[in-house]
Amino acid sequence: MVALGGEMQQVSMSTLRLLVALAEEGSISEAARRIGMAQSNASRSLKALEASVGVQLIVRAHSGAYLTDRGNLLALWAQEVVTAMDRLLVGMNSLSGTSGGQITVGASHTVAEHLAPEWLATFHRQPRAVTVALDMENSERVLDGVARGEFDLGFVECPEVPDSFTQVEVRVDALKLIVHPGHEWAALVHRDEPLLPSVLAKTPLILRESGSGTRAVVSAALAPYGGVRTLMELNSTSAIVRAVEAGVGPALLSGLSVEAGIREGRLVAVPVLGQTLERCIRAVWLPSSPPRGEVRDLLSIAVSGQPL
C-alpha cells in the first residue's frame, strides 16, 4: 500500500498497476486480464481510486474506457511507482537467489517491456534449474552492470558499444516520431509531406533520460541541425507514450513501443525527410565471462527464437 492525498489515504499496488494497464489497453476488462484481476474487482478498485482522488479519472463508453487528462497524469505518476516497485522486487529476488540458481539479466526499457517477456516465456517452456532476474535499466546502466559483474547478460540499444564488451546483434529497431492526432504535424501525414529535420530540431520533445539508447540515437540524428531540445524528460517509455497521447508534445520512440497506439489511432507517426532513425539492439557480455549453459540458451532465444 502507498499513501495517496493529503489525508494519507491508502491505494494498493494492484490498483496502480491496473491504472497503468488501463492507460495502455483502453479497456477495463483487458487491463484487468493483463494484471490478473477479476473485472468486477477492477471496476470497484477504479471507482474507489476516483473517490479517493476526488476527480473523474476514467470515461466509460460502449467501445471501452479511456482516461481523462487528470487520469493520464495520475497514470504517469503511477508508472514511476510501479517501475520502482518492480525493481525492488527484482532486487529482493536476487538477494535471496542461490549461487548457480539464478541468471541475472540487465535490459534496456524497450527490450524489457517488449521483447524479454516472449524470450522468457520460450526459455521456461523447458524445465529449468534456474530462475531469471530481469533488471530494467537504461542502456548506459546496463553496460555498467555487465562491466561490474552484476549481470550475466545485458541487452542494450545505444548507438555504440565499447570494445571492452563482446556483442552480438539481436535485431534492428526503427524509431518513430509520434504526435497526438490533433497535433499540427498530423496534418502532414494526410498531405503526404515529411517533416523537415531542421523543424524537428527546433521543437522541444518529450525525451528519455540521458544514458538511454533512444536518447542517444535522437541526439546523434539531430546534432547536425543544432541538437535536440527538451520539453519533458521521463525515464519510462510507457510514460512518454501516455504523455504524447495526452497532447503534451511530440516524441521519438521505438516502433515496438508505439505500434499499438498508431494502429488504434491514438498516435500518429510523422515521417521525417531524409531520416531513417534506426538503432541496433545488442546482447553484450564480458569476454572473460562468455555465455554458457542456460545463459547461452537464453541468448540464443533472443537472437534466433530457439535455444541451441
Task: Provide a quick synopsis of the model.
With 308 residues, the chain is α/β, with parallel strands linked by helices.
Overall average residue pLDDT:
86
Largest sheet geometry: 7 strands, mixed
Low-confidence stretches: 1-8, 96-100
Count of DSSP strands:
13
CATH architectural category of the largest domain: 3-Layer(aba) Sandwich
What Rg do the Cα atoms give? 20 Å
Describe the global form.
globular
List the helices and strands and how they pair.
Blueprint: E1 2-4, E2 9-11, H1 13-25, H2 28-35, H3 39-53, E3 58-61, E4 64-67, H4 69-96, E5 102-107, H5 109-114, H6 116-123, E6 131-136, H7 139-147, E7 153-156, E8 166-179, H8 186-190, H9 197-202, E9 204-208, H10 213-222, E10 229-234, H11 237-245, E11 251-254, H12 255-263, E12 268-270, E13 278-285, H13 293-304
Parallel strand pairs: 5-6, 5-7, 9-10
Antiparallel strand pairs: 1-2, 3-4, 7-13, 8-11, 8-12, 8-13
Considering the chains and any ligands shown, give keywords for the structure.
single chain, 308 residues, alpha/beta, Arc Repressor Mutant, subunit A, D-Maltodextrin-Binding Protein, domain 2, 3 domains, seven-stranded mixed β-sheet, globular
What does this structure look like?
- The protein has 308 residues and is α/β, with parallel strands linked by helices.
- The protein has 3 domains: 2-82, Orthogonal Bundle (Arc Repressor Mutant, subunit A); 96-171 and 280-304, Periplasmic binding protein-like II (D-Maltodextrin-Binding Protein, domain 2, 3-Layer(aba) Sandwich); 172-279, D-Maltodextrin-Binding Protein, domain 2 (3-Layer(aba) Sandwich).
- 45% of the residues lie in helices and 23% in strands.
- The protein has 13 helices and 13 strands.
- The chain has helices at residues 13-25, 28-35, 39-53, 69-96, 109-114, 116-123, 139-147, 186-190, 197-202, 213-222, 237-245, 255-263, 293-304, and strands at 2-4, 9-11, 58-61, 64-67, 102-107, 131-136, 153-156, 166-179, 204-208, 229-234, 251-254, 268-270, 278-285.
- The strands form 4 sheets. Strands 5, 6, 7, 8, 11, 12 and 13 form a 7-stranded mixed sheet that branches. Strands 1-2 form a two-stranded antiparallel ribbon. A two-stranded antiparallel sheet has the order 3-4.
- A hairpin with a 2-residue loop joins strand 3 (58-61) and strand 4 (64-67).
- Helix 1 (13-25) crosses helix 4, helix 4 (69-96) runs antiparallel to helix 11 (237-245) and helix 6 crosses helix 13.
- The longest helix is centred in the first third of the chain and has 28 residues, at 69-96.
- It is globular, with a radius of gyration of 20 Å.
- Residues 1-8 and 96-100 have low confidence and may be disordered.
